Amino acid sequence: MITVYCEENSPLLVRAAEAVSAGLGIQGAAAVELVFMPADEMRALNRSARGVDAVTDVLSFPALDCIRPFTPENYPYDCNENGEVVLGSVVICRERAESQAAEYGHSAEREYAFLFVHGLLHLLGYDHIRPEDERVMSAAAERILSGMGLSRT
User: Fold this and answer.
1) Is 137 exposed, middle or buried (0-12, 13-18, 19+ CB in 10 A)?
2) Using an 8 Å Cβ cutoff, are 88 and 58 in contact?
3) For FRET with 100, which of 91, 118, 141, 147 sits at 20 to 30 Å CA-CA?
4) Which three-class secondary structure state does DSSP give residue 37?
5) Residues sharing a CB contact under 8 Å with residue 86, sequence separation 6 or more, in sequence order
6) In a 3-state reduction of DSSP, which class is residue 86?
7) Residue 4 pairs with which residues in a beta bridge?
8) Shortest CA distance to 60 belongs to which of 21, 87, 85, 94?
9) 4-23, pLDDT tens digit by residue?
10) Residue 38: phi, psi to the nearest 5?
């Protein structure tokens, strides 16, 4: 199970974390920090973290070097006070999420869930640099979102 820590209440994204846990067969207790950021701050963060001076929709900051079952025994130095393995942080830009939802012709809920699932998959070791990795990551994201009733329309 993956617990979402966020200053804002987001039942949809808590449900997305549960869907990722179930869909990927996550074992043990894990935690993710979720942050919503305005466009100007997201641009500065993207510039600082990736050297790209542009607003982006989502950034992920993994805390782990490798993925194993999430137990304190496997990650003795990576647990929070609740005994959950800290996966890292996902940062979402609200303005980009909203504009992309309109651009792609689907709901803002679907876009927020997609961005969060995408970021969470990065924290779990998925990537999309190579085409074959992108296919695997995209298929996992779509399977999870479809299971939530948020498939592409």
Assistant:
1) buried
2) no
3) 147
4) strand
5) 30, 31, 32, 33, 63, 64, 78, 79, 80
6) strand
7) 32
8) 87
9) 999 888 899 999 999 999 99
10) -70, 165
Q: Exposed, middle or buried, 128 (CB in 10 Å: 0-12/13-18/19+)?
A: middle
- What are the φ and ψ backbone dihedral angles of 47, each rounded to 5 degrees? -65, -45
CA distance 57 to 143: 21
Residues in CB range of 76: below 8 A, 6 or more apart = none
Q: Please, which residues have CB within 8 angstroms of residue 14's CB and are 6 or more apart in sequence?
A: 4
Q: What would the two tokens of residue 71 be?
A: 């137990």
Q: Which of 101, 145, 104 is nearest to 13 (CA)?
A: 145
Q: Look-up: residue for tokens 């299971």?
A: 147
Task: Compute CA 7 distance to the chain's CA centroid, rounded to the nearest angstrom.
Answer: 16
Q: Which two tokens stand for residue 114?
A: 């997609």
Alpha helices (H) along the chain: 11-24, 39-50, 94-104, 108-123, 131-147
* pLDDT, tens digit, 9 for 90 and up, residues 19-75: 999 999 988 899 999 999 999 999 999 999 999 999 999 999 999 988 888 888 888
